[in-house]
Design a protein that fits this description.
alpha/beta; Aspartate Aminotransferase, domain 1; Aspartate Aminotransferase, domain 2; 5-stranded mixed sheet; 11 helices; globular
Amino acid sequence: MSKFWSPLVHELKPYVPGEQPKSANLTKLNTNENPYGPSPKVIAVLQQQASDALKLYPDPGSDALRQVIADYYHLQSAEVFVGNGSDEVLAHAFQAFFQQDKPILFPDITYSFYPVYCGLYRIQYRCLPLNEHFEINIDDYLQANGGIIFPNPNAPTGVYLQLSEIERLLDANPDSVVIVDEAYCDFGGESAASLIHRYPQLLVVSTMSKSRSLAGLRIGFALGNAALIEGLHRVKDSFNSYPLDRLAQAGAIAAFQDQSYFEMTRDRVIASRQHLVEAMQAMGFEVLPSMANFIFARHSQHQAAWLIEQLRQHDIIVRRFAQPERINNFLRITVGDEQQCEKLIKTLAVLLKSALT
């Protein structure tokens, strides 16, 4: 606390990211990073870009990168916005579209940064409960609102909402901006980007941190009607004209251009996810259906707090959310590589067996 803080700062409840441990000996399955490194083409480009040119400012509009992303999603570059990670893109979107007279809507179990942004920008919001299967019920969102946002697949559950349901939501909310946060969509879902030309109120936000293995470069982007994108640029250029540095822009372009590497690593993550789900179900875990690079699981006989502590003693870290209470007995487990998943499975088997003796 400081007497020099503004009243707003005193009220803030900041987002708490997952632990980034200093020890290299841990099997780190707590922050949904990709277990496979970036494309070798990305590494090569970054080495080339580490030159005297770094004395110069980067392209403030990231024009080359925006064109590459536009080509990938069959859009125009004017329908693409990029930022310093999807969190920054989301922050700009909250400022640009959600400061309305009516509350915005999002699920009660969702990405925990949403209420943080609402606190920072003094935005009214209303949380709508997921159903008993931890699914979004579109009928709940057919009410007056100042905007709608949700991840698809949802976080931290991993549950996916079909595009037909998103269309129904858009049809019912023609005058509200609807943001679909697709941080994990590449791991089995279908992007809502295909709906952009039919729904001018739709903004799709994504990241290169997960499926493209570039969490360390901080690259996020948004796809939408050119008027929405212009709004984001107006906010961005009132805050920071150079959000993406030269290395980030070059690395992101190279990542999008290496489609075969993307598909290979994505398919390996999906295969490991399926193996992990089957193994944990065999050990008595309930695992929610996931289309992300993580799973959300609980055991009927053992508390998540005990499991997470025991795993830590075996040098494995996963994540647990104490709030809301409805999910505090779930573990969110990042899908690692084959060796990491096997270590987790074998360790859990030992822990559960020892608990019976």
